[in-house]
Amino acid sequence: MTYAGGCQCGEVRLVATGAPRRVGICHCLDCRRHHGAAFYAAAVFEDAAVQVTGAVRSYEGRAFCRHCGSPVYARSEGEIEVHLGALDPPHDLVPTYELWCIRRAEWLPPFAGTTCYARNRD
């Protein structure tokens, strides 16, 4: 399995190889502010499974295109979180959990098949 994606202008591209460790949604304030959205969804891979080309800038491990500003991925503790919205197509991977549900927007409908954690996963 391979998953390809990148930024809006195409300057940053990535290819993830193999199955992700997990796919989830986050409602924490950091993720919401970084994406300018009510929540954020990502597929988490082992860092070595993802190859990135193109120049990025980063802030606290969150990488974005230096040219168009699109957020593409985040790195932490040997893992890389590939933003589902950056994938071509973005709907091949389905989240199975939600983090920070205490911050979840009340107007969001339930997402079928996800486990909600009040904060981080146990």
TrEMBL record:
Name of this chain's protein: GFA family protein
Family, similarity comment: Belongs to the Gfa family.
Domain CENP-V/GFA per the UniProt entry, residue ranges: 3-98
Entry annotated with the keyword Cell wall biogenesis/degradation: no
InterPro entries noted in UniProt: CENP-V/GFA, Mss4-like_sf
Keywords: Lyase, Metal-binding, Zinc
Residues in coiled coil: none
Pfam family, one: GFA
Tree of life domain: Bacteria
